[in-house]
Amino acid sequence: MKHVIFIVVLCIINVYGRVAVDVHHDDINLVAGVKPLTKNESIIKTHIDIENVDNAVQGNLIHVNISIAKKPCVTKTLLENIADNDSDDNNEFEPCAPEVKIDNGTALILTPLIKEGKVKEARKSARVDSKLFLGFKSYSGFLTVNETYNSNLFFWFFPVANKPLNSTPWIIWLQGGPGASSLTGLFDEIGPFTVINETLKRNPYSWLSNHSLLFIDNPVGTGYSFTEHEDGFAKDMATYSQHLYTALKQFLQMFPELRPAPLFLAGESYAGKYVPAMAMEIHKRKDKIGSDINLEGLIIGNAYVDPDMISHLAWPFYYFGLLEKEQIEIAKPLIDSFQQAINANNSSEAKNKWNSLVTVLLFLSHQKHAYNFLEDELVVGRYVNFLRTTPVKRAIHVGDIKFGWVNMTVNVKMAPDFLSTTKPMFERLLEHYKVLAYCGQLDLMLPCVFTSENYRTWKWNGSEEFLNATRFPYIFNSKLAG
Ligand SMILES: *[C@@H]1O[C@H](CO)[C@@H](O)[C@H](O)[C@H]1NC(C)=O
Ligand SMILES: *[C@@H]1O[C@H](CO)[C@@H](O)[C@H](O)[C@H]1NC(C)=O
Ligand SMILES: *[C@@H]1O[C@H](CO)[C@@H](O)[C@H](O)[C@H]1NC(C)=O
Ligand SMILES: *[C@@H]1O[C@H](CO)[C@@H](O)[C@H](O)[C@H]1NC(C)=O
Ligand SMILES: *[C@@H]1O[C@H](CO)[C@@H](O)[C@H](O)[C@H]1NC(C)=O
Ligand SMILES: *[C@@H]1O[C@H](CO)[C@@H](O)[C@H](O)[C@H]1NC(C)=O
Ligand SMILES: *[C@@H]1O[C@H](CO)[C@@H](O)[C@H](O)[C@H]1NC(C)=O
Ligand SMILES: *[C@@H]1O[C@H](CO)[C@@H](O)[C@H](O)[C@H]1NC(C)=O
Ligand SMILES: *[C@@H]1O[C@H](CO)[C@@H](O)[C@H](O)[C@H]1NC(C)=O
Ligand SMILES: *[C@@H]1O[C@H](CO)[C@@H](O)[C@H](O)[C@H]1NC(C)=O
Ligand SMILES: *[C@@H]1O[C@H](CO)[C@@H](O)[C@H](O)[C@H]1NC(C)=O
Ligand SMILES: *[C@@H]1O[C@H](CO)[C@@H](O)[C@H](O)[C@H]1NC(C)=O
User: Fold this and answer.
1) Are 181 and 224 in contact (CB under 8 A)?
2) Which of 6, 40, 245, 318 to pair with 267, CA 20 to 30 A apart?
3) Which residues contact 439 (CB under 8 A, 6 or more apart)?
4) Are residues 422 and 461 in the same domain?
């Protein structure tokens, strides 16, 4: 059966890993240009200088604040040379703690072993000490996807327990962003454990209970994935889909028993591009010898598939009652220039305008983020400190590669991809694979209505049947679940 299923999840789903904008409410340059609506001081902040908003949000920051307050420190020699030793100003300096050289091991690059055919050895060295991870068996390491630039994708694989690997479905998880680590999916969404107060806790809802899970940090530079060359970052779909396919091929050399297992590619938000792009790479080689990968389906959540899904960004703020018409009117110049950039197919420009528009809408509606307007704080990235500890770094073979749950370099490099569409890919893939599209309906960035309306425009040999289908409530354990 080839069909799309829509599940509007009524419970609160935190849809992480998508790009929001940093909304330091007081930092936005407020300059006259647009007249305030009323004389009320609290609304006067609606003077918005479109140009300055652009400048204010350059870099397209993820909103959630996970930085750790740290006093600046100075080295001993520098401290000795500070001329004015009596000044109170020196209180802001602290001598740096002597640097401890803890050995965090080295990053495990598996590709050379795989190339030499030493797959057993590769597999053995990728093994993660399960004692540190509540006993869950797993493997991790790096797969080289471009040797010229020494670009490597990091993976962390959890085989299903107590079930045969070769027939149990397996899922590859790709986070959105672009530039958000798939370890967010592992620790905050579908993986077997989560970090609470720096301690691992079991996740009773993990998808691992019935599937093997493979998390890949993608594109290069995201999470623990890295490149050693400025030009190694992906700027387009051709590059990231090629990288993902190359990594998958190497991974399957290490775990050949997974080849016959039904494979599902899953992800949310920006992964609405990665998931079908990777699927197409597999599909293109479907009948070629040695490329037998049993792709069974695709799973996308609040997915960004097509520019049409984001072009009416402002309206949910109005319809959810977060903004009134006059406030939307304030953002009108930005809405128009965003639309123009989309019409001109100018990705970088559209991304800038989109950023600005999101910033303004969040600012006007006093929202801290755009992923669940019922929650003030989005708890995400709690796992990061845990991941940076020496025992964990050693256990998952990452050495001293820097980890950030969002890599802004990756995000910025991907700007030319912003307006790409994967709609034609889905239209082809739907004739061969199952597609599950779900959405959490409190998301303001890719609201259910815009994603669903776009799905309804897809043309494939089952689209008539799909449009004809009746929408049913999703009942789980006798309760409405979606
Ligand atoms: C402006 O609106 C705020 C919030 O509704 C209210 O607390 C404040 O008293 C108002 N100020 C004036 C000057 O009307
Ligand atoms: C982020 O956290 C740091 C340290 O706690 C704090 O100084 C800073 O003001 C915070 N930024 C925002 C935007 O909340
Ligand atoms: C400043 O104070 C430090 C420690 O109190 C001392 O070691 C250093 O010699 C002083 N430097 C100068 C320039 O007086
Ligand atoms: C090893 O990791 C720890 C914890 O992140 C860090 O403090 C230390 O500097 C690292 N060691 C080296 C040699 O970089
Ligand atoms: C590595 O990346 C560069 C730039 O994207 C590309 O020109 C080159 O063909 C890539 N090499 C391989 C082996 O994929
Ligand atoms: C985490 O620790 C804080 C402070 O010790 C405590 O207030 C909080 O309840 C803890 N959270 C959980 C989920 O255990
Ligand atoms: C796992 O699969 C079994 C049967 O295949 C099913 O009974 C069970 O409900 C599934 N568990 C979860 C958590 O989905
Ligand atoms: C982003 O990726 C680049 C390339 O791997 C790396 O040099 C940089 O440190 C990363 N930034 C963060 C915040 O992780
Ligand atoms: C937009 O531009 C990209 C290349 O920059 C091109 O591949 C794509 O076909 C264009 N889309 C439209 C709708 O013209
Ligand atoms: C996109 O728009 C920007 C700003 O208007 C302009 O500098 C740039 O040349 C445009 N790019 C393309 C490919 O038209
Ligand atoms: C759609 O096309 C595919 C491939 O040609 C075929 O296998 C499938 O049965 C068709 N589905 C329907 C509903 O006609
Ligand atoms: C669509 O629904 C109509 C009315 O129930 C039915 O006659 C028709 O065969 C359906 N078409 C498809 C493709 O299912």
Assistant:
1) yes
2) 318
3) 6, 7, 8, 9, 301, 302, 446, 447, 448, 451, 452
4) yes
Pair 265, 384 in one domain: yes
256 and 231 housed in the same domain? yes
**What is the structure's pLDDT at 189?**
94
Inter-residue contact 227 to 239 (CB < 8 Å): no
The CB of 162 under 6 Å from ligand 5? The reply is no
**Please, what's the b/e burial string for 10-23 (b: 16 or more CB within 10 A of its CB; e: otherwise)?**
eeebbbbbbbbbbb
Q: How far is the CA of 64 from the centre of ligand 2 (A)?
A: 10
CA–CA distance, 219 with 229 (Å, rounded to integer): 14
pTM attached to this predicted model? 0.80
Mean predicted confidence (pLDDT) in 276-282: 97
For 363-390, what is the mean pLDDT?
A: 88
Query: In this predicted structure, what is the pLDDT of residue 93?
Result: 58
Q: Indicate whether 121 and 164 sit together in one domain.
A: yes
Same domain as 395, residue 255: yes
Q: 218 lies in a domain?
A: yes
Q: What confidence score (pLDDT) does residue 60 get? A: 29
Same domain, 145 and 169: yes
Same-domain pairing of 185 and 256: yes
283 ligand 11 Cβ < 6 A: no
What pLDDT is attached to residue 130? 96
- CB 42 near ligand 1, within 6 Å: yes
Is 379 close to ligand 6, i.e. is its CB under 6 Å away? no
Q: What are the pLDDT digits (tens) for 229-242?
A: 999 999 999 999 99
Cα dihedral sign, 426-285-261-145: negative
**Hey, which bits of 289-433 come out as E strands?**
295-301
Query: Ligand 4 atom closest to Cα of 100?
Result: 9
Q: How many angstroms is it from 388 CA to the middle of ligand 6?
A: 20
pLDDT for res 378? 79
**78 CA distance to ligand 3 middle (Å):** 10
Domain, as residue range, for 344: 323-365
Residue 37 carries which DSSP code?
S
The finding on whether 149 has its CB within 6 A of some atom of ligand 5 is yes
Residue 31: pLDDT over 70? no
Q: What is the pLDDT of residue 56?
A: 34
Q: What is the pLDDT of residue 375?
A: 87
Please tell me the total count of domains within the chain.
Answer: 2
Give distance in angstroms: CA of 49 to centre of ligand 4: 44
Could you tell me which residue, 74 or 370, shows the higher pLDDT?
Answer: 370
**174 and 273 assigned to the same domain:** yes
